[in-house]
Every structure is written in C-alpha cells, then in structure tokens.
Design brief:
The chain is α/β, with parallel strands linked by helices. It has 3 domains: 108 residues, 3-Layer(aba) Sandwich (Rossmann fold); 77 residues; 202 residues, P-loop containing nucleotide triphosphate hydrolases (Rossmann fold, 3-Layer(aba) Sandwich).
Length: 410
C-alpha cells in the first residue's frame, strides 16, 4: 500500500533517497552541492537522507527521469533498505510519475516542488500566506490528479479507460477547480485590504530585505532595529513578510523582512505569493543579502536577481549586503598564479572595482553593522528628501501622525 505524503508526529524519522540528473558540463562538486541543498530542504521537514543518486544526463529521461540502469540500481536499494520516499531534484512530468510509481510500488515518489510546498505550508503563519500556500498546493495537484486516480483504481482492481474511477476523477477535478476559484477570490479580497493598508503608508520610504534563503535576512532585521524576527538555520524560516517601523538619525522608514528565494522555486509559489512579493515590488530600496561564506554565493546572487526581474523588481536602488564574513574561509592557491578572489579583502576589491554598492558584515557577530547602517541611512535619506523636498521645515511628528504609525526611535 502506498504511503500518503503527510507528516505527523510519527515516532520514526522519515527516510529518503535523493535523485538528480547532472548535465555533462557540470562539475561533480556542483552536482553534490545541489544535492546537499535538496537534503537540507528535506532536513527542514525532518526527513533523513539515506543515499543520493546522480546520473550524468543533459536532460532527465522522458520516461523514468533517470535511465534504465540507474533506475534498477535505485529499485534494488529501496528494496533492501527502509526507504519511505524518493525525492527528485526536478519537477516530474505525468509520464515520470506514472512510470516511477509502477517501478517503485511501496515508496512515495515526490519532487522538489512538492517538498518546497510542504515547507511553505508548515511555515505559513498568517491567513494570507496559508491561503497562498493552499492555492499553490491545489494548482500543483490539479494536473497530477489523473495519476493519483489511476493509481487508486489500480489498487482497487479498477480496469479500463472509463468507469467509476473516471467519473470520480472528473468530479474531483471540478471540486479542485472550484476550490482554486474560491481561494483566488478570498485572496483578492485580502489583497485589496493590504493594498489599502499599503496606500496609507504611501509616503513612507520602504526598504526590503531580499536574498537567497538562509543567508541571514531575519538576523539582519533584528540587528538593524529592535525587531524580534524568527531566525533559524533551516530553509524558509520566514514565509510571511514582517514590517518594522524604523528611524535612523531622525529619518523614518519601513523595513520589511521577506521570504527567501531558492533555485527552481516552484512557479506556482511565485504566482501564489505575488501579493506577499508586492512588499518587494513596492519597496524603494532593496537590501540584497548574500551569504559570502557559501561556496556558490555568486550563483545565489544570480538566482535572486533573476527572481527579482521575474516579479518586476529588478531595477531598484540596491545595497548588496555580504553577510557571514565571520565564517568565510580563505582559499589557498599556488603563489603567483592568477586566481579568483580568495579572501574577504580580495572580494571587496573585486566588487568595489565593479562599482557595486556593497558592504561586508557579520550580523551574528555584529561586525561592521555601523557601516551597513550608514550606507542604508544615506540611501533612505536620499529617497526621503526626494519624497519631501521641503524636509527642513518638515514636522516629523506630523508625518508620523499622518501615517498613523508610531515609530520606535532608535
Ligand atoms: N556565522 C554566521 N551565521 C549567521 C550570520 N547571520 C545569520 N546567521 C545564521 O544563519 C542562519 C539563517 O539566518 P536567518 O536570519 O534565519 O536567515 P534568513 O535569510 O532570514 O532565512 P529564511 O527566512 O529561511 O530565508 C541562522 O542560523 C543564523 O543564526 C552571520 O553573520 N554569521
Ligand atoms: Mg528569515
């Protein structure tokens, strides 16, 4: 009997095998690092990774994701060990799921998107983000229903193309479509309310913390102001945006902590979280946080920039905040050989040379936070003066009253 994909407080830690394909041009190190990230996603849900399988393929095999030989290897492993699920690093097509289900009878077959959806659903706090995740889950489920049903009817000994299973499938599809419509309706109502709320804040300078997941956005939020935001060494600790009122040297602004990005973020999540992501779209200034101690931080910058472009926030004044300098490890290269930057100092030179507006800090160890504040202050002030050209004569008390906000003085 196939196990259901749900997490209860079971006594046993669920176990998984991870599977990825890696293009020939990709280094082994890169492939391993991607799988580490997938294992970290699984770990965030309390799933223990037992083994990983990588196959060198430019594209997943259209029938079974990996080739025949590799699949046999996986099936043999699964038969031998206590494996609850197999997690694939890419989205599975209908054909993949169908064929894999057949080969891997007793094991749950899931993909990266489903894993991320599950994390989001555990992390969602507000009514809005809960609805957004639910919507994304139904959207994920709809095209996959046929598979679920064919599996179901096979188990009940169902046969043929038509019959009760088929009708029930149609009914289920309709129910889910109705659900999707209803959720969209509810969300658009909330959306209107938050647009109104945002409008009332219209004359505030807005700053948003953005970046790859787990880079330290929430920690920075806590160290810039007095906020107390949930920070944890897990992926997607923050799913809901948190807005804080701040004042730096008498200039008020709003600082928003936002949901982190990741490679291959499921599209329905970007779609579903549009209104949460509006906090980024509406921001005047972005603090793009980067974990410089991560092997692939430059690729992370690229993923974040691509996602920002996708949601229409790619061209905002941005301060690149290189965080975690305390855990950065210098790289050794043979002397006198040309090499990429290998120390924080060299990275600084390289980014300064490119003319990037950036700062290097450790939020956890409170290193260089003053410089971050100064740079941020300059950007906020420029924007503030642009909104309030007559700022010298401006009555700040009046501004705070007008906005209906109470600012915490720094
Ligand atoms: N060594 C070190 N660790 C840090 C630093 N800043 C944050 N961390 C740690 O990195 C982990 C992630 O920090 P968060 O602030 O939750 O990161 P985030 O970007 O908000 O993550 P998501 O909300 O999941 O996207 C936590 O374990 C932090 O303690 C730093 O400067 N140095
Ligand atoms: Mg966070």
């Amino acid at each position: 009997m196939k196990k259901e994909f749900q997490y209860t407080s079971e006594t046993k830690e669920p176990t998984a095998v991870l599977v990825a394909v890696s293009p020939k041009a990709q280094t082994t190190q890169k492939a391993e690092e991607y799988l580490d990230e997938l294992a970290f996603l699984a770990e965030t849900l309390g799933i223990k990774t037992l083994k990983t399988f990588v196959q060198r393929l430019d594209m997943p095999d259209p029938k079974t994701f990996v080739g025949k030989g590799k699949l046999e290897e996986i099936v043999a492993y699964v038969k031998h060990y206590d494996v609850d699920m197999i997690i694939f690093d890419d989205d599975l097509t209908m054909a993949h799921s169908r064929n894999l289900d057949r080969e891997l009878q007793d094991v749950m077959v899931i993909d990266r998107s489903l894993l991320i959806l599950q994390i989001f659903s555990k992390r969602a706090q507000t009514a809005q983000s809960k609805l957004q995740v639910e919507l994304a889950q139904y959207q994920y489920m709809l095209p996959r229903l046929t598979n679920l049903w064919s599996h179901h009817s096979r188990q009940r000994g169902g046969i043929g193309m038509k019959g009760p299973g088929e009708t029930e499938l149609e009914t289920d599809k309709r129910i889910i479509r109705d659900k999707i419509a209803l959720l969209k309706q509810k969300l658009s109502k909330i959306d209107k309310q938050s647009t109104l709320r945002r409008k009332s804040r219209d004359r505030q300078v807005r700053v948003a913390l953005v970046g790859y997941t787990n880079v330290g956005k929430s920690t920075i939020m806590n160290s810039i102001g007095k906020a107390d935001v949930f920070a944890e060494n897990k992926l997607f600790a923050t799913v809901d945006s948190t807005v804080r009122k701040m004042v730096l040297n008498n200039v008020p602004f709003l600082l928003t902590d936002t949901v982190g990005f990741i490679r291959k973020l499921p599209h329905m999540l970007i779609e579903g979280f549009k209104s949460t992501l509006d906090d980024i779209v509406d921001a005047d200034i972005l603090l793009h946080v980067v974990d410089i101690s991560h092997e692939s931080f430059e690729e992370h910058i690229q993923v974040v920039n691509e996602t920002l472009n996708e949601i229409g926030a790619g061209d905002k004044p941005t301060l690149l905040v290189f965080n975690k300098i305390d855990t950065f490890e210098d790289k050794e290269y043979p002397p006198f050989e040309e090499h990429p930057p290998s120390t924080i100092e060299e990275w600084k030179q390289s980014y300064f040379a490119k003319g990037t507006n950036c700062v290097f800090i450790s939020a956890a160890k409170k290193q260089n936070i003053e410089e971050l504040r100064e740079k941020l202050f300059k950007m906020v002030t420029d924007k503030f003066y642009a909104i309030y050209p007559n700022h010298e004569s401006y009555d700040y008390n009046k501004l705070w009253l007008e906005s209906g906000e109470n600012f915490e003085a720094e």
